[in-house]
Amino acid sequence: MTEKILADRYRLTEQIGTGGMAIVYKAIDLRTGHNVAVKVLRPEFNEDLEFVSRFQREADAASKMTHHNIVNLLDVGMDGENRYLVMEYVQGKTLKEVIQERGRLNAPLACQITIRILSALEHAHSKGIVHRDIKPQNILVHADGHIKVADFGIARIADHATLTRGDMVMGSVHYFSPEQARGDGASPVSDIYSTGVVLYEMLTGRVPYDGENPVAVAMQHLHTVPIPIQNLAPDVPPAVIAICMKAMNKNPAMRYQSARDMAADLRMVLDDPNERRPEADLSQVVPPTPHVRDAKGMTESGRQRAIEARNRRLKRVWTALSVLATIGVIVGLYYGTRALIRHYSTTTVTPDAVGVELASAVQKMAESGLETVVKEVSSDEYPAGTVIMQVPEAGETVQKGRDPVQLLVSSGARKLEMPSLAGNTVSDAMGLLKSMGITSITVERAVSSQYAADTVMACAPEAGTSVDKDTDVVLTVCGGEVVVPDFTGMTLREAEEKVADSQLSLSATLNYVDTDQASLHGLVGEQSPASESRVLLQAPVSLSLYRNETVAKRRTVEVTVPESDQDVTVRMTLQAEGSSTEWVYVTYVCTPAMGRTQVVTVELPDDRDYMCQIYVDGNPFMKEDLGAE
Fold first, then answer.
1. What is the pLDDT of residues 13-66, one digit of tens each?
2. 5-88, what's its fold?
3. Per the residue annotation, which of 60, 133, 265, 617 is the catalytic one?
4. 89 φ, ψ (degrees, to nearest 5)
């Protein structure tokens, strides 16, 4: 897609990243001329409800946050079939690359970076957002040293309608918390644990837990004590080690309960006056050897007395000249110093106030001895009360007490009136909102007998409300209605056909219920939603099959990924012969330390022939027929 223009606005110039869900491009915003990063959902996932939902969740999470340590969301949209997010572009490296290049970092630097990560997490947690995938690969280090937390792709919003206890999406195995390893839900203290792991890696140059496969690493998070930091980095202060170990406590209740508390302890360690440089070793200072003049006596002749007299006269001349030169230097220094003092006492360098809140900007100018004149103007780019432009610009040398610095301040986005959308189709309603510049739109589907499917039932804010382009709009849309049948006791093939006939969809993940009765093996034992429930058209149905260990059929699959020094995500799916449903069997992260080849034992759901499809970083990699052996 390089050199493609999205939405007549973003020219993609080069691909700068790739993941299992999306591809990231560097782009130019043709309206502003600024560099931006554009994340585009991979085309093969445009119809995949799971990935579309995850992509939308990243947009929802990012749209709720504005913070100097978080990669900010600038725009969301669709161009044809292409779903995209526009983020600020960060020129620099990932923290993982920095650690790989430099090895372990010194304790003060590691603490400073951790404080900035915690600042971002405190903001996210205050918005009800749990990142769930904190790792060095998701921490961006700007070329000027700023730290940015990126990739809220698997984040969860605590009050989001899609948050369920059964959700099994997890972060990277080397950094996720024990509760994530158990399959429990993640919470803010799970992010604290992952931050502790990142701090451990910065201090020691290695992750605390490693193993041959993801399961082995997960078990270490649950049961193993990491190698003590002081064994790997003896110069790390004990206070920093204590903070790191508290964050990595396996019991969530024993960790820091907020990012703010952990950051406060780190700041206290950095500000500790007892942390001083060692004093100079005085034993290494060697006193200079004094110069000894030769005092040997001589017999003086007349000629020698004449020579000495001439030398004395020359010495007096040179002494007088030296005195005059010294006086000249002193006078020059005096008047030069006066001129410098006069210059620097009456001039100053204009501080940078663009992007700063008005009160802080005025204070910065006052501290530099400058007065200010403020003018307000509406702006869709800057929040209300933020400086958009200043004259003179930052860095210019100006005279104090002369012309004041002019600050152009945003009064907020141009106000619009929310239109009446009830009764419109969802596509018409979204088109109207986008034409007004509103892009933060969430669609929630509900059951209704009053409205036709895909018709807007209500919206928030209500019609007539004053809004702007940054307003979050929620459309409640009629999704139709279906009564869920009873699938228990059916084979998977029968349940699959029944789901399709009932205008429902089958969840992409199968669950299992162990049983001692061989006759129940392969039959549906549990379902969600329950039978007789009223749900939306095409609502997903999750099935749990009975499994008997004695009759279950298993196959082994050997997966060898391409050689690389990067982590890769491997996803294995199963699809029965004649079935249109592809079930996710397992997803794991393969690191260089694990080796490029992994052997996975696959349990077949029933007696049908199955095809196993392997994806590497979201791309189809290989297929293997798991039919009769």
1. 999 887 767 889 999 999 988 999 999 988 887 777 767 777 777 777 777 788
2. Phosphorylase Kinase; domain 1 (3.30.200)
3. 133
4. -90, 125
